[in-house]
């Protein structure tokens, strides 16, 4: 993989590939291309000023929910120098980690592993938020795409590429009732929890956490243990927190080979299976965290304290601002009430939409918005660049598409396709 320099105003290089985003998905692709000996000229563009993976949820004590063996490369090439095990070796923590007797590193440690891997590549331009991707029609048929990025100071930098891979991650999702009010100092998403809410937390603050999944539970538990002793309500539609199903047989759905089986199913069968398996990933909580929260509430009942509350069977039907407060209109089985808080944090997941993301300018050239088995969008005649997407194909490739579970295999498949496009003989090395 060849790296070249560029000017600030614009890059005169025509790259073989530009990657939008440099999170785990495109980082795994960079590794796959390097290990395949690819000669492709590659540039990744990342909006953040430096590598960071979910910095807003680096909650002290929070562990990963998948094995460290599902890292960037181990399932494809366990002898790679980019494995989590080699990271431990180079950091001098191998024996100490073994002594912990766990497959699940802390989230902080796994982020450090990802950053360690990312720091070994100089093919990423940071502080480059992609704001537009347009076809280059100067030659008639579209042979290249032009990518426009913007830095923190508002300066635009333009790039050109023969192929594209898009992996910007999801965007924080808010309920429709938050329209026009979200992402203020008082109404936040868990995406910004550690960066925006925790530093501003005041003693005895009134906080509402809205959601019934893992992120909501983690934030609730963390706030409960903060020295500022905030009053915290956990607001959820469900009757109770539901445990995630991480049993061995169910976890086989996240195996890389299951992608083929899922993709080959009829659309109706795929949607039905996604619904059946939702308990592995959506609106569910690790059982040990459920137990910890239950214990918190039980001990509170013993002492007579009323600082923490679980408001189940409660639907947020309205959001308003009043002076320094946030009002939540809450629909319960007994009626409607309005509760006021200093801060409200929504743990309501992420959205992934190709049209509203940076591919908007290419949508007229897309024959379909669903990627093929090789994660490549089908484009109309006259559009030559290959456009790959990572993390947008859950309905066609399975639950693991937005997770870390298939990083190693998916990146290898995309690397193979890219090598074949530019040099069929080189593609053999990427297998």
Q: Main traits of this protein?
A:
FAD/NAD(P)-binding domain, 5-stranded parallel beta sheet, disordered N terminus, globular, 2 domains, 13 helices, 431 residues, alpha/beta, 21 strands
CATH superfamily of the largest domain: FAD/NAD(P)-binding domain
Query: Which architecture of the largest domain per CATH?
Result: 3-Layer(bba) Sandwich
Can you identify the CATH class of the largest domain?
Answer: Alpha Beta
Report the portion of residues in β strands. Answer: 15-25%
Biggest sheet overview: 5 strands, parallel
Regions with pLDDT < 50 over 5+ consecutive residues? 3-8
Widest sheet: strand ordering: 4-3-2-8-21
Class based on secondary structure composition and strand pairing: alpha/beta
CATH topology name of the largest domain, in short, is: FAD/NAD(P)-binding domain
Alpha carbon gap, first and last residue: 16 Å
How many DSSP helices?
13
SS elements, strand count? 21
Our Rg estimate from Cα atoms comes to 23 Å
Backbone shape: globular
Q: Which percent bin holds the helix content?
A: 25-40%
When the domains are counted, the total is 2
Mean pLDDT: 92
